[in-house]
Write a structure and sequence with these properties.
With 108 residues, the protein is α+β, with helices and mostly antiparallel strands. The chain is built from two helices and five strands, in the order ββαβββα. It has one domain: Double Stranded RNA Binding Domain (2-Layer Sandwich), CATH 3.30.160. A hairpin with a 2-residue loop joins strand 4 and strand 5.
Length: 108
């Protein structure tokens, strides 16, 4: 199941794989991704993929977030006990990537 939503600064597409409709986790993912605008102010296009792996019982919730900015793509893949933990880990990773990219652009 895939849903796209466009806000002023962030276009977010959420895809749930091997899972039922979880509107609360979709809203959580959208809110988390929209927070990335404080690290990179340009319009962002994001794709969040949430997956449930049956073969791993400990950390079976997977999140993959792809952020498209002009002339560059950033990807973070993390797993956790819950979707929220996996999403938060991805957001931390993407925050670092966006900060580093923005800093490189300033130094050019």
């Amino acid at each position: 199941m895939t849903k796209s939503v466009m806000s002023d600064e962030v276009a977010v597409k959420v895809t749930l794989r091997h899972s039922n409709n979880h509107s609360t986790i979709e809203e959580y993912a959208r809110a988390a991704v929209s927070g990335l605008t404080k690290f990179y102010p340009a319009p962002l296009n994001c794709h969040v993929i949430l997956d449930h792996q049956k073969n791993d019982y400990d950390q079976n919730k997977l999140a993959e977030i792809t952020v498209h900015v002009p002339q560059h793509d950033f990807v973070a893949r993390e797993s956790g006990h819950t979707y929220e933990q996996a999403i938060d880990s991805c957001i931390d990773s993407l925050s670092r990537q966006l900060k580093k990219f923005k800093e490189k652009q300033r130094n050019i």
